């Protein structure tokens, strides 16, 4: 969690305004197929709700697995999501297949992907797809909705060679994510805090240093401070025909922190019910440690649309919540909220 925040400052800009997940390898489009001779996954395993004519022919076994899982994973991990593992074969391989956080080649037993599919992962969200017991992948197979069995996926992992398709540097065709615009960031903050998004227009509830951020593009009277903060976030300057920043700058990251602190402080001071599902503002350590950690996991999922790992929860709890609670619970929850808004997963498409 904290490492991602540090990583953001190191990857603030690129020529096209995109943030690329740090990878050490490049996909070789001429890589060999991982199948044993003649071994394929049946066409029925690639069952989707889309039209047949839209389906591309699998390039290799990794692609067969991707196409079989895609209908059940793309809603949360498609092209427009913060973890677009199913946006392309390159994204699937760079972000999932050869990412030891999820897949350990030759060892399906310890691969988190299998734990998610079987509904036995550790943490606040033990299954994929998210939902009730009937919605986990292994249950969808039992119902006949999905036809690629988990045992086949386990065999694929057990026979998968480590880094078989990579050759030494990051690929421009792997996972790239565009940063949110200033208006999108303001709306995303409002959504996370349970408010209707306004795209930067004046609305009670999004405090920023005691004032509400406004977009110069909509001709609403604003203070010089509001204008500077909005432009610092990368907002477009209509009067000067500016299109807005497409990259993160050091100044922009600092202003994002100010915006997040203001919005979170107001929401916490109002005891916003959206922020407190498993813990209350009055809960304190050590008696309510479990409830506090559960609430941190809930906020992580709400803000970042991704399940928190135990390490993620522990980092937020030990590095942010625990020391801040020595001052007050309001400051502790404000800092948790601020840290999540600063996370690269929050401020990217």
Number of helices, where a helix is a run of at least 4 consecutive DSSP H or I residues? 12
In terms of structural class, how would the helical and strand content be classed? mainly alpha
Number of strands: 2
Distance between the termini: 18 Å
- Global shape: globular
Q: Main beta sheet: strand number and arrangement? A: 2 strands, antiparallel
Report the portion of residues in β strands.
Answer: under 5%
Give unreliable regions as ranges. 5-54, 164-173, 199-221
Helix proportion range: 40-55%
| Average residue pLDDT | 74
Summarize the structure.
With 349 residues, the protein is mostly helical. The chain has helices at residues 2-10, 61-77, 89-97, 112-118, 137-142, 150-158, 182-192, 224-232, 250-269, 289-304, 310-325, 329-342, and strands spanning 18-20, 176-178. Mean pLDDT is 74; it is low at 5-54, 164-173 and 199-221.
Properties at a glance:
mainly alpha, single chain
Give your account of this protein's structure.
It is a single chain. By secondary structure, the chain is mainly α. The chain has two domains: 19-176, no CATH class; 179-213 and 248-342, no CATH class. The chain contains twelve helices and two strands; from the N terminus they run αβαααααβαααααα. The protein has helices at residues 2-10, 61-77, 89-97, 112-118, 137-142, 150-158, 182-192, 224-232, 250-269, 289-304, 310-325, 329-342; strands at 18-20, 176-178. It has a two-stranded antiparallel sheet. α9 (250-269) packs antiparallel against α12, α10 (289-304) crosses α11 and α11 packs across α12. It is globular, with a radius of gyration of 22 Å. The protein starts with a helix and ends in a 7-residue tail after the last helix.
């Amino acid at each position: 969690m904290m490492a991602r925040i540090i990583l953001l400052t190191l990857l603030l800009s690129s020529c096209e305004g995109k943030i690329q997940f740090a990878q050490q390898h490049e996909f070789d489009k001429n890589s060999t197929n991982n199948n044993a001779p003649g071994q394929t996954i049946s066409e029925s395993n690639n069952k989707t709700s889309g039209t047949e004519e839209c389906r591309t022919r699998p390039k290799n076994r990794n692609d067969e697995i991707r196409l079989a899982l895609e209908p059940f994973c793309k809603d949360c991990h498609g092209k427009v999501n913060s973890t677009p593992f199913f946006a392309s074969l390159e994204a699937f391989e760079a972000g999932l297949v050869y990412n030891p956080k999820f897949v350990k080649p030759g060892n399906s037993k310890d691969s988190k992907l299998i734990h998610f599919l079987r509904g036995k992962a550790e943490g606040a969200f033990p299954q994929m797809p998210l939902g009730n017991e009937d919605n986990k992948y292994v249950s969808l197979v039992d119902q006949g909705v999905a036809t690629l069995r988990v045992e086949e996926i386990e065999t694929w992992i057990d026979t998968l060679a480590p880094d078989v398709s990579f050759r030494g540097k990051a690929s421009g065709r792997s996972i790239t994510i565009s940063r949110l615009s200033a208006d999108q960031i303001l709306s995303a903050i409002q959504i996370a805090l349970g408010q209707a998004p306004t795209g930067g227009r004046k609305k009670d509830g999004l405090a920023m240093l005691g004032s509400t951020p406004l977009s110069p593009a909509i001709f609403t009277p604003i203070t010089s401070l509001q204008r500077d903060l909005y432009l610092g976030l990368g907002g477009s300057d209509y009067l000067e025909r500016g299109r807005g920043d497409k990259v993160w700058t050091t100044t922009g990251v600092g202003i994002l922190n100010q915006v997040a602190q203001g919005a979170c402080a107001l929401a916490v001071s109002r005891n916003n019910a959206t922020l407190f599902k498993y813990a209350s503002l009055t809960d304190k350590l050590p008696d309510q440690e479990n409830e506090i950690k559960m609430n941190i996991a809930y906020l992580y999922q709400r803000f970042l649309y991704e399940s928190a790992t135990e390490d993620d929860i522990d980092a937020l709890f030990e590095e942010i919540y625990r020391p801040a609670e020595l001052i007050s619970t309001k400051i502790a929850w404000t800092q948790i909220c601020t840290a999540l808004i600063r996370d690269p997963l929050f401020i990217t498409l």
